[in-house]
Amino acid sequence: MKPDSIEPPHIGALKAGPRNAISDVADVTVGHATIAEGPLQTGATVVRPHGGDPYRDRVPAAATVLNGFGKSIGLMQVEELGVLETPIALTNTFSVGTVAQAQIRQCVAANPQCGRRLPTVNPLVFECNDGYLNDIQAMAVNEEHYLTAYAVAGPDFMQGAVGAGRGMSSFGVKGGIGSASRRVPSADGAEYTVGALVLSNFGRPQQLSLAGRAIGPMLVERLAATGEPEKGSIILVIATDAPLDARQLRRLSLRAGAGLARTGSVFGHGSGDIALAFSTAYTLPLDPARPMPNVAMLHDALIDPLFQAVADSAEQAIIHSLWHAETVTGRDGHCRRALLDVMGGHIATLMEQPQ
Predict the structure, then answer these.
(1) Catalytic residue among 233, 253, 265, 279
(2) Cα dist. 36→39, 131, 133, 200 in Å?
(3) What Gene3D superfamilies does the annotation carry (predicted)?
(4) Does 233 participate in catalysis according to the annotation?
């Protein structure tokens, strides 16, 4: 069986949306800018919560830091105010400042009074360290890469070794960008969508579990892997159209950790594991003269199906980040092989075995 003909396992009993991606949540779009030039294997990825200006029309959001070995920017204000003011940007560790500056310039260009008559903007940039494959010291990502990723953002986007995921590694193989979604019938008669997007750069080969099956021992054997400590990270972005406030969204973000743990992660000492959740059900105006939304929030007693959808879509997105990745060679000849290149038809055999 050819590796590219092997379908990834479906996680859980909930159905996926039509794209099985975060963009199944209406108005959410994703774009990439990829650098793939010899020792430079990196890029930027942008998640837009809606098609307008998030500085003027903010969406409710909250984050959970599962393990704080990270250099993200903007989390403190998200925790305090419970809103997003910019798109969500993903990149490598040394490019956080550059991408944050691009977000600020973009906001000022669209809102000339930002930082003067209007409040300053809170950029939001998440990172993982792609320094094994990418010459991270070259700081190749510039403001144009962020703007390109923003400009091309759409409902259909690539996964795997693209954008911010270009140089990322997971479980000793190629990691990167992955996404998934789940449809959630609710007891209140509505149907909601939950979507996840991950920047996957974590895990040791021996830890890997796919759909509850221990792949790690065989992966270690095929990679001839050594017992190096975990030094990676993962960013998990959760979107939903369910009407939730920031408190409830923080509870959703925490459940992304359940999906992460199922793949074998123990949130290692050197891993920066951060989850952010936002809702597109309503926006909050910057201008105090505009009315605040009158939205009936989902009752807490009805939230469990959303928790299930978050865990399942997060796990599925991590699997997709591995499934869609290609083998990449970068800095100093370092190579990360794609999971399906390493495992080949053995994946299908393992998936068929009873648990």
Answers:
(1) 233
(2) 8, 14, 10, 18
(3) L-amino peptidase D-ALA esterase/amidase (3.60.70.12)
(4) yes
